[in-house]
Amino acid sequence: MEDIEDLLVGSGGAPPGFRLPLNAVGVNPRKKTKSKPSKISPLNDPPKIPGTQTIYVKTFGCSHNQSDSEYMAGQLSSFGYAISDNPEEGDLWLINTCTVKNPSQSAMNTLITKGKSSKKPLVVAGCVPQGSRDLKELEGVSIVGVQQIDRVVEVVEETLKGHEVRLLNRKTLPALDLPKVRKNKFVEILPINVGCLGACTYCKTKHARGHLGSYTVDSLVERVKTVIVDGVKEIWLSSEDTGAYGRDIGVNLPILLNAIVTELPPDGSTMLRIGMTNPPFILEHLKEIAAVLRHPCVYSFLHVPVQSGSDAVLTAMNREYTVSEFRTVVDTLTELVPGMQIATDIICGFPGETDEDFTQTVNLIKEYKFPQVHISQFYPRPGTPAARMKKVPSTIVKNRSRELTSVFEAFMPYNGMEGRVERIWITEIATDGIHLVGHTKGYVQVLIIAPESILGTSAMVKITSVGRWSVFGEVIEVLTQVDVQKAPKNVPNQEKLPPCSNQYESCACSKEPEPCSCGPDICGGQIRLEEYAVSKDDSSMENRGIKNPIHWLLRKRRNHESKEVENDIASGLKNKHDWAPGGWGIVDRALLVGIFVSFLMIVAVIMHLEFRTLPSK
């Protein structure tokens, strides 16, 4: 079937939040002829009143896709539709797709097949239909393009009537003030632009999202103001390449970041997280971006994909930077931003990658010991230049992926954090259903056991143990407005720095201890333990173990359980019974034996003293 586009020639369509009549939307209507059935069979049941049905929403892919789904769910909900994550409850399935890798598109195909076999009306959104509109799997389903998400209500209504709708072409960006149903009410995913300026040979997303299109600084700042009033505690800036922001409208990323930071609450209750950025477009702004990352209301974290440690492979990928330039980004940010955390991506087995190329990649990861590395095997995407290149044998690709994963998982990036006191921002419940999840200023994940009532707040925690993927903490104090006002004022002889809002905030300080605008005792988000009257004995684990073996055994037991919990949370277990430790380990037995022996010794001493007193009586 030919693509059916928006029929309002020269018009931007309906204003946000308003539906258009049927004749304003391109559709493939039901055919009434009996002798020749239509391509799209009408629904067996008569159509219900629009806005009374339940819509199952499934999202694949990146945070930008998640934001699009939240906008679509918000519009549908505002028109009366119920939103569900249970496919069985859905009268219609809305599938938001990802085209980055084969597995995500295969999952989409499986879901579409299942929906068709269940006679469910289907609407497919996202990058797959936008970039590959003629796929066989998309026959007989409605399509809404990545820049047509503000028309989703129209598409859903016509699909429920049995029509097939395709809305793909548009020259303007969707409005940022559309209704939205957030997956996490404390987190706003804010798209700052669509598309990119790159031309990576392996990338299919460019086919879908297109060339760079940036939102204005004013529109983004207004959105930030709105979501803060809504109670959002984390704002994630999302983009296919954050660093390229604004180059199409005459501004740049530092201009946007500084404008947003100005609007963040001075008490540090809402944090900003900067999204993924490729190296080329931040090289010229490293110092300005570092200054923003030092701000107390901005996470000291950045996702900078390198993809390979070999210049030859980067050239074949058309990544437009060298390994040396990537090192410059990492080294500069690490030097200028205290506690800076950097995540990166690696593609294993790109066409033409030699053993030497791969060795260079492994050495790069070993050198920097990144706390997060997203490792994937190369997947040839149809229509991309890399799909026509000579492939590395699949067995070699898998072996390289396994080897690099083993190297990465051997790191313990959070060693040394135990015993620290950190401020964290608590925004979600862990997948085990027991722990709450918070993040430090460096965006290190901290798991705590606390009541759900503190979700959406900030707290001081003491780090009690560390794992591979996260750390565990104990809450010392939940911060309130009263706590915020404890910040020292008018500290003399200070270097002029961005003001920290309260005594718990990290400051723009160097690695050498020197005064900063938060006071002399606070730097890099850490606080001297004496201020919280934390036991000074914590500084020497060995001495404590010698003085109190029972305490040592209890601590070993707690650390052992923490590692089990962390591994299970990392695996995404949602049933709290799935992670509960079962059986008695060596530490448990040793602890039990120690307690039993201590009890016998106490009894023996009491009996001995009793017998010694009998003759005197």
UniProtKB/TrEMBL annotation:
Q: Where is the Radical SAM core domain?
A: 182-415
Q: Name the UniProt key words of this record, in alphabetical order.
A: 4Fe-4S, Iron, Iron-sulfur, Membrane, Metal-binding, S-adenosyl-L-methionine, Transferase, Transmembrane, Transmembrane helix, tRNA processing
Q: What class of enzyme is it?
A: transferase
Q: Which SMART domains match?
A: Elp3
Q: Which InterPro entries match?
A: Elp3/MiaA/NifB-like_rSAM, Methylthiotransferase, Methylthiotransferase_CS, Methylthiotransferase_N, Methylthiotransferase_N_sf, MiaB-like_arc_euk, rSAM, rSAM_horseshoe
Q: Which reaction is this enzyme known to catalyze?
A: N(6)-L-threonylcarbamoyladenosine(37) in tRNA + (sulfur carrier)-SH + AH2 + 2 S-adenosyl-L-methionine = 2-methylsulfanyl-N(6)-L-threonylcarbamoyladenosine(37) in tRNA + (sulfur carrier)-H + 5'-deoxyadenosine + L-methionine + A + S-adenosyl-L-homocysteine + 2 H(+)
Residue ranges annotated for the TRAM domain, each copy included: 415-477
Q: Where is the MTTase N-terminal domain?
A: 53-161
User: One Pfam family this chain carries?
Assistant: UPF0004
Name the cofactor(s) required for activity, per the record: [4Fe-4S] cluster
Q: Where are the transmembrane segments?
A: 590-609
Provide the residue span(s) of the region labelled Disordered: 20-50
Give the highest taxon in the source lineage. Eukaryota
EC number(s) per entry? 2.8.4.5
The text of the family note is:
Belongs to the methylthiotransferase family. CDKAL1 subfamily.
**Protein's job:** Catalyzes the methylthiolation of N6-threonylcarbamoyladenosine (t(6)A), leading to the formation of 2-methylthio-N6-threonylcarbamoyladenosine (ms(2)t(6)A) at position 37 in tRNAs that read codons beginning with adenine.
State the protein's name.
Answer: Threonylcarbamoyladenosine tRNA methylthiotransferase
Report the source organism: Hibiscus sabdariffa (roselle)
